[in-house]
User: Fold this.
Amino acid sequence: MNTERGIRLQSLFMSPFIFSLTIVSYLYMILIANTFFKSFLKLNNKYLIGLIILVTISVFLSNSRSTILPFITITPLLLLKMPKRYKSIIIIGSVLLVLSLPFVIDRLEIITSVFDSQSKAISGSSVSMRENQFAIALRSFFESPIFGHGYGYTDILRSSNFDLYGAESVWIPLLVEQGLIGVILYLLFFKGLVSIDKFENKRILVISIPLYYLLLVTMNGAVNISLYIVFLNLAILYKLFLYHDIWKRNKSK
Assistant:
């Protein structure tokens, strides 16, 4: 995909954002599965290291602040919460990162521009544009803060406020259309996904998948349609934990 921002990797997916969400969710699911099912799945550590490297390269080639920033924030925290055998992965990853800096130093603006409201180095929505969007959304929110204005009102608001444009965050339509009730229910939905019994004592790792999604859609609401990717990965993890318990019970007999 060749845009004004340059080449953006998206593979067979409809956008670079959905591509990144899919591969990062898969990576996190595999890392979590390997942590708890080492004897059950027997994954090769070389595969894991290769997967981390490939996903990292692909996320950066998506050329999107919305996908890169959550990835470099959550992935190290996830790896640090894992068993000691992952220390080698962290060390190798850190060395590779340092070695690659001379080759990517000119691309770091895509990350630093997130924190610079005056930056025009990267095309797309800037911090100041998002600030304007939230200002418009919050004015509308305070007109009906509890229940919002109803489904589809964001389009009506956009017609008289061109600055709202793409409403570059999932929270904008939530605040405008569904109000405080919608925001609370949205967060409770994600809490419910990681609160099931099979994730007990594992939630600090499992939460990495929905957390990556939430950070991504906070910065880019265009991927809200891809919530099923998060649900699918958590459903697979749930099934793995379920079958692992059955396998352990049968093995002990």
